[in-house]
Write a structure and sequence with these properties.
The structure holds two protein chains of two kinds.
Chain A: H1 2-31, H2 39-57, H3 61-86, H4 94-117, E1 132-135, E2 138-141, H5 142-164, H6 166-176, H7 178-183, H8 188-213, H9 221-235, H10 240-261, H11 266-280
Antiparallel strand pairs in A: 1-2
Chain B: H1 3-19, H2 21-25, E1 29-35, H3 42-61, E2 70-76, H4 84-93, E3 99-104, H5 106-109, H6 113-119, E4 123-126, E5 140-142, H7 151-162, E6 168-173, H8 176-191, E7 196-202, H9 210-218, E8 223-228, H10 230-243, E9 251-256, H11 262-268, E10 276-279, H12 292-306, H13 316-333, H14 338-347, E11 371-375, E12 392-396, H15 409-412
Helix pairs in contact in B: 3-12, 3-13, 7-8, 13-14
Chain lengths: 288, 414
């Protein structure tokens, strides 16, 4: 019973972390229909930015994540503009070519990281990494609690931003009916560009959480492509609260399997769950 | 490239070429290999390649082999088993290399074994484990110091049993190397009547090990034998530190790849203390042979520029040794006939910078030279500390032993 309870608690923590690394994709792919397969590569790049600041100036990883957020916002604006001008504006085959474009970006990011940092694993140091809180016999890694709290705050803030602010509503509107928005005098491309900037900016914090939770290496993005897309699709495209719920379900399921049923089954869980949700509810848990 | 630089370079090549006309007249001896330059094994792959490159440069500086320069043809296999069969087919059929070196590690090497056997090609193995056990290729020679298959697990369990360990937990990565290691560990445990109370295989890309370590701890094992790959070893040790492993554990470690790499060792720092893990070369007096110091002098300089493991203890000298063995065999047989080279390698003992090497019929070392060492007194964020002796106290083999095991594991962590 203790083991099951522990697995559930650790699963919730892990799930919130999955939400943080997926929530940007929920905006880019879910709301904007951009086939952003480079999302995990952006995430790893952010982790390396955090590593550099932590290594060179001893800045706390979370603060370092905050510090690089504006840079990532600008990076997102630029990436979307290039994508739009090169592919989306030109017509109907933007989807397939867009995937190739983002795969290309992901590959370039990997190579740049290798050239700059080498291929070795990198990690950060902070007072909360490597320690745990005890509750009797039960221990929780503090880095996971930090990741949980920050991820939860990030997801809730982004959900509130998209539902309460003028720009947030405009982003939701452009996702629903781009043409109608254009007829009302708004510029959907600028709104989508801004939204992609937001989706990339949140990776500053998510990247910090990634390197807080575990060491990173240049090709780590490949491990996260499946998980992040699984969470976003299972959540229902564009649903931020759905992303949180789907990620927690995934985290708990993985944790229970790892603890009680044998670790080798864990990777199958995410895809089995994805297939299950799509079979029963094709629009995802909280889909549009 | 600027025109002037290019012309300067061309002139320099011409001058050098004129000075060594014998070398220039003969086509180079091409040695082909894939090597992980990206992916989870890249840290080791790059260090291994640098060791081989230093050997190439040394040989070429001495005038080459059979009067011909050595040229390496290297491709990145991205640490992936699916890449290597096509690469080795290209090396043989398109690049027409004269000799083959295997890539670093078990996973990329395993799938090329049937190919080299079918073609009757000599393959110098590079730190893979038991990839020839089922294939039975008689032209395979592994540079790694593992020795007989079960000696790795046996040496660890010897230490564990002396410390009072009576049952074992096994945690292994779901890939070729770790599974082979686990297989031998299970065999040795069975022969010695050591019950296995926890036996879990975790998949590649596992993000978080807390849940697994919690389950392992609940089994209350005396001995914890871990066979993990570089991306996972750090995650496992972090989780052990945070979740705890229990007072029952006498000894922890055994087959964790990654704890030999400077970046990982530096990242983990004091979390390494107490872990007993295998190793291949450590900076102890007994481990210096002819050329070892000179090799590390060169390696240390070149590693910084190449952005590879600054210590390079684990793989780099064995890459050099692989070249030394080929050098000796080609020199002695005075040909590139692969069967002749294989015969020479099988029948002789070879002097290398990692000590004398002799092979069994299966192409593995006759005698194990795999070290079991315990991390002690390691501080955080200090790579240089690992250049001194005493940070990894050698417990096995007896002839190299530098201290006794500190047990239980939790006591050894302080």
């Amino acid at each position: 019973m203790d083991l099951l309870l522990g697995a559930v608690v650790l699963g919730v923590l892990l799930g919130c972390f999955y939400a943080a690394v997926s929530v940007g994709l929920s905006v880019a792919f879910g709301l904007l229909d951009v086939p952003h397969v480079a999302h995990p590569a952006f995430l790893v790049l952010a982790s390396y930015g955090v590593f550099q600041l932590n290594e060179s100036y001893d800045i706390d990883p979370l603060l370092a994540g905050l510090a690089i957020t504006p840079l990532f916002f600008l990076f997102g604006l630029l990436a979307y503009r290039v994508y739009y001008e090169t592919f989306e504006r030109r017509g109907s085959d933007a989807g397939v070519r867009g995937i190739a474009f983002f795969f290309g970006i992901a590959f370039i990011i990997e190579v740049l990281i290798i050239l700059q940092f080498g291929v070795d694993q990198r990690s950060v140091s902070a007072t909360y990494i490597g320690k745990s809180w005890r509750f009797g016999e039960f221990r929780i890694p503090i880095r996971q609690l930090v990741a949980f709290a920050v991820a939860l705050a990030l997801t809730v803030l982004l959900a509130m931003y998209l539902s309460k602010t003028f720009m947030g509503r405009a982003i939701r509107a452009v996702a629903q009916d781009e043409e109608a928005l254009r007829l009302m005098g708004a510029n959907p491309v600028r709104i989508k560009q801004f939204a992609f900037g937001i989706a990339t900016a949140v990776l500053g914090i998510a990247g910090a959480l990634l390197i807080i939770v575990a060491p990173v290496e240049p090709t780590l993005d490949r491990a996260y492509i499946g998980r992040t897309f699984c969470v976003v699709v299972m959540a229902g495209l564009g649903s931020i609260s759905g992303t949180l719920i789907a990620a927690i379900i995934l985290g708990v399921a993985e944790s229970i399997v790892l603890t009680l049923f044998g670790a080798s089954w864990a990777p199958a869980i995410s895809f089995a769950m994805l297939l299950g949700v799509l079979a029963v509810r094709p629009q995802g848990l909280l889909g549009r | 490239m600027k025109r002037r630089t290019f012309l300067g370079g061309a002139m320099a090549v011409a001058v050098v070429g004129h000075g060594s006309s014998a070398l220039a007249q003969q086509p180079p001896i091409k040695i082909g290999m894939s090597m992980p330059q990206t992916g989870g094994l890249a840290g080791g792959g790059k260090a291994s390649l640098l060791g081989i490159e230093i050997w190439r440069d040394d040989v070429n500086a001495k005038g080459g082999l059979l009067g011909r320069k050595i040229e390496l043809v290297v491709y990145d296999d991205k640490s992936s088993a699916s890449e290597t069969p096509a690469i080795y087919a290209k090396l043989v059929d398109v690049d027409k290399v004269d000799l083959l070196f295997a890539p670093y590690a078990t996973v990329p090497t395993a799938p090329i074994m049937p190919f080299v056997k079918q073609r009757g090609l000599l393959l110098m193995g590079n730190f893979s484990f038991q990839v020839n056990s089922k294939v039975g290729h008689d032209m395979w020679f592994n540079n790694a110091p593992w020795g007989p298959a079960d000696s790795w697990a046996a040496s660890f369990l010897d230490l564990a049993q002396k410390a009072g360990g009576k049952n074992m937990a096994l945690l292994t990565a779901d890939q070729e190397f770790a599974q082979n290691l686990a297989l031998t560990a299970r065999d040795v445990a069975k022969k010695r009547n050591i019950p296995i109370v926890f036996d879990q295989t975790y998949p590649p890309n596992t993000v978080e090990f807390s849940s697994i370590i919690r389950a392992l701890k609940a089994a209350k094992p005396d001995i914890v034998y871990v066979a993990s790959y570089p991306p996972d070893s750090a995650g496992i040790l972090r989780a052990v530190n945070e979740i705890g492993i229990g007072d029952s554990v006498k000894i922890f470690g055994g087959g964790m790849v990654g704890l030999q790499f400077a970046a990982v060792m530096s990242n983990l720092g004091s979390l390494l203390n107490g872990v007993v893990n295998y190793n291949t070369w450590l900076p102890e007096k007994s481990m210096y042979f002819d050329g070892t110091k000179e090799f590390f002098d060169k390696y240390t300089k070149r590693a910084v520029e190449a952005k590879v493991d600054p210590l390079g203890y684990y793989l780099a000298p064995f890459g050099y040794a692989m070249g030394q063995m080929i050098e000796a065999a080609v020199g002695a047989t005075k040909s590139l006939d692969q069967k002749g080279i294989a015969k020479y390698l099988r029948e002789n003992e070879h002097k290398t910078i990692v000590g004398p090497i002799a092979f069994s019929a299966d192409g593995e070392r006759k005698e194990t030279a795999t070290l079991q060492a315990q991390f002690r007194g390691v501080k955080d964020k200090d790579i240089e500390q690992f250049r001194t002796s005493g940070k990894q106290v050698i417990l096995f083999p007896d002839k190299l032993k530098a201290g006794e095991l500190i047990s239980p594991f939790e006591a050894a962590r302080n």
